[in-house]
Amino acid sequence: MTGHAIVVGGGIGGLATAVALRRIGWRATVLERAPELGEVGAGMSQAPNALRALAELGVEAEARAVGVPTCSASNLRRSDGRYLQRARPGDPTPLLAFHRADLHRVLLGAVPADWLHTDAEVTDVRQDDGGVTVVAGGAQHRADLVVGADGIHSAVRTVLWPDAEPPRHLGRTAWLGVTDVAGLPGDLTGSVTMGNGDLLLIHPVSRGRAYWALLTSQPTAGVRYDDEKAAALDRVGDWHQPVPDLIRATPEAAVIRTDIRELPPLRTYVRGRAVLLGDAAHAMSPDRGQGAGHTLEDAVVLAHTLATEPTIDVALARYDAERRPRDQATARGARSDGARTASSAGQRLLMAMVRLMPAAVWRKGLAPDGNPTWRWQPPELPVRSS
Hints:
Residues 320-343, 367-386 are annotated as: Disordered. Residues 5-332 form the FAD-binding domain. By secondary structure, this protein is of the alpha/beta class. Helices cover 34% and strands 26% of the residues. The radius of gyration is 21 Å and the shape is globular.
């Protein structure tokens, strides 16, 4: 089965979907509301499951060329610098870290330019027996189905899932930044540091830079400061290096503030010839580092069902049955993980458990097949175009 899909959203999820559809011989029209294609945000890491999805999309080599191995999962520290668990030289590093813009460029390079439409904000989606019509940017686009890959505030979901609950605040907020690391002290191979209910993550990214993210409790959404960089530094200025100097070295304009939200579970990802993926379907807490990874999985599975099932309706039903339970289970786990590290008491309990855990057991859990999430294997896409 081949056809034509309208993909709403030109971020990582939308581009991954377009790449997957192209590989199975489908055409796609990608609608992005921004005036130009790009990726906002700072950094991310991708686990083995996501890297397998990138391989199935045919862009693994390009992705690895712009990614950097990170030891963040292996280096767990207290705010005074003490290591609770530490990576050894030669230990495997299953995670690959990216600047979001670098991974976005890799996917963008695999999508035909004439498939991409910017300044195309979706205002309506209509369905009939023959397919879907999407109104965007003053134009109408017609296709066999529409894929909502337009993020946590999805226009497709808003129009076609009016009964869906809105995204909810999880009582936490984050500061994010990327900066050059030349001359900075301390371990910049990647780490997670906990203290006083705060958590700070460091990933190395390409071109001699590092990404950092500071997560802290914030019961009220939308609280902001005149100087967000100073507010972040005020919380961790006395922590071990490189934490304070990394934040000080970050240009003020490069510090991003975002509240942690999730999308309450949907009863279905499918409405007629419309289907959701990525944050539009299952926006989740970042605590398991799986938001983008599950988005890449979604894209591969959607393309596989469209390529191997006899009708679109059957394909979408199978996609929903395969993806929704896994996505929502991971979202629940991420929420629980975040809740455990969002208080001093929870962190002390976690630190005690880590100290009692033999290093061999810790390292076994960090193998590429060390947990069920990472063990996911993509279906093989029947490649019908180059």
